[in-house]
Amino acid sequence: MTILALTLYCAFFFFSVTYYISTLATAPWVMRISCGARLDVHTAPTNTFWYKDFAYTGGIPANATRPSYISPPLKTLRYFPLSSGPNNCYNINRVPKGHYAVRVFFGLEGRPNFDNVPLFDISIEGTQIFSLKSGWTNQDDQVFTEALVFLTDGKASICFHSTGHGDPAILSIEILQVDDRAYYFGPAWSQGIILRTAARLSCGNGKPKFDVDYSGDHWGGDRFWSPIKTFGQGSDLARSTESGIKKASNTPNFYPEALYQTALVSTDTQPDLAYTMDVDPNRNYSIWLHFAEIDSSVTAAGQRVFDILINGNVAFEEVDVVKMSGDRYAALVLNTTVTVSGRTLMISLHPKEGSHAIINAIEVFEILTAESKTLLEEVSALQSLKNALSLPLRFGWNGDPCVPPQHPWSGADCHFDKTSSKWFIDGLCQYEPSLNMAYFFMVSALDKQGLRGFLPNDISRLRHLQSINLSDNSVRGAIPLSIGAIPGLVVLDLSYNSFNGSIPESLGQLTSLRRLNLNGNSLSGRVPAALGGRLLHGASFNFTDNAGLCGIPGLPTCGPHLSAGAKIGIGFGASVGFLLMVVCSMCWWKRRQNILRAQQISARGAPYAKARTQLSHDIQMTRHYNQGNARTAAENGPSLLS
Ligand SMILES: *[C@@H]1O[C@H](CO)[C@@H](O)[C@H](O)[C@H]1NC(C)=O
Ligand SMILES: *[C@@H]1O[C@H](CO)[C@@H](O)[C@H](O)[C@H]1NC(C)=O
Ligand SMILES: *[C@@H]1O[C@H](CO)[C@@H](O)[C@H](O)[C@H]1NC(C)=O
Ligand SMILES: *[C@@H]1O[C@H](CO)[C@@H](O)[C@H](O)[C@H]1NC(C)=O
Ligand SMILES: *[C@@H]1O[C@H](CO)[C@@H](O)[C@H](O)[C@H]1NC(C)=O
């Protein structure tokens, strides 16, 4: 199965013990998985521990090619060919409630001549956080995606969704706990948002570094800092210092001190500093800017003052790093939120007359709204349907049925209820293909799918269903009684399957039912009277082509309802009747023989033929009587003959 939860469970029992010990020491919860690895892995230089996932059966483990030097030095990956279905997930259990940085590195299969670079989508807890863009293998910082999420239900579900461009291939998954208020940016920040890292740059630094390499705090989520030596105008200068930095590793974000020991500063020829990046349009971004005065030429407040503009709009006015941080060699963090309508985000620092700008680090997050999930009750009902019908992998019934909305389970129709903010299932039939036709080839309804198995009784837990079409499959067994408890069912098409038994009386309770196709099954018995009555009211019901249905207009009338005693009575009566018939036919045959003989005599001219016939009759009667077992027949005999 592509859901890895079951097997992961065992590993995480062991892990939760470790977790208990670690909470005592108030260390963050950490889970690192090396995908496709047969054995646990330790990687240099920090001896980082990675769990193997080889026991898990979803997808296929393979040797990895790491497309970038940034990737952790892992040698295996797990990929999900289309035969695994379009949605594949790692479901990690026993994750303590908290705030986490979740990071996924992508890999390339290490097969010779492998040139199919996959493009796919990634979701965390049902929210799509990232779509790989073509050319990702050529950009070092595009080999992973990372997001800050709240995990509140004890689980982490991380799913990979095929888009028809190659097989998703995953090198590693990391779930790293961070402070509950990490990257708090103001009142709009809540547990319902997800911050996807769009850029994280260490300015004036030559080497890429993770927090661990920087000896940063464990609560920082082991951030990866891309190096940026220049903003590109060729007129900025890199600065660095060995001096210690005050107030760097503060709650809630715990930045590494080393982050503030390098910077870019502007020069006389080009006093403005500007950083430009590509973004997705019409999104909100949270921007975090880091400063520390590390340039020996600036010794006091007032010597370096600049405005910060984002896409031309002033975000911060008259920033004076020494004044605001309280000292030289002290960290200052500013954050702001912007809506970007175009495809570029430009952060520019515009110094006041006579001074220069400085910046040490930049972080840009895309603000995503976490998707509401599908009602749990309905998810578990669909799971049981999936098992009962042995649904093929191509249906992609992994993760959440309705979210991300770009990748719903095929065959399940989703509806979002605004008042309860939950998704529910209102149909098991037709998937409306999304506008994005790239997904179209993978989606299908549940009719004509060669489905086997049976319909489970808890299908009624999908209590918002309006239509079910399982037509033209090989589903067998009884029609579950409970279907009658789905109040709003309008269409029920179970035609051309192998359902047997009788039609449950409960279907008569479905007052909204307008189309009921039960034709082409092996159903027998009486059609519920309540359905028969409905026929008159313009609904379209089809019961033809079954083993033996009866009881409504158009079908044979059913036999009378009989008690066991009545059946015995009828049986006895029938046997007696049968015997009587046997005896009578014997009498008739004998008499006929006599008549024939008499006719032969009369043909010879005997005038008393009639009397003789009478005589032979008397003899016969006596013989029967003597046998003593056919008194009635013997007594009736003369009347039959005369
Ligand atoms: C992966 O590489 C190892 C050698 O490094 C080799 O023994 C193994 O067969 C490879 N596995 C696959 C699936 O190619
Ligand atoms: C980010 O900015 C908001 C308001 O602009 C402020 O309330 C918040 O404390 C800042 N967050 C941090 C961690 O500095
Ligand atoms: C961006 O934020 C504004 C105001 O907070 C909100 O109205 C808008 O819906 C957000 N846009 C997106 C794409 O989330
Ligand atoms: C159910 O699906 C079949 C095709 O497999 C279609 O012919 C039929 O009309 C559908 N039933 C309803 C009620 O839409
Ligand atoms: C229906 O078919 C199943 C086998 O598929 C059989 O076990 C069961 O007894 C049948 N039920 C009726 C009522 O004929």
UniProtKB/TrEMBL annotation:
Pfam families: LRR_8, Malectin_like. It is a single-pass membrane protein. This is Malectin-like domain-containing protein. Residues 33-366 form the Malectin-like domain. The chain crosses the membrane at residues 568-589. It is found in: Membrane. GO terms for cellular component: membrane. Keywords: Membrane, Signal, Transmembrane, Transmembrane helix.
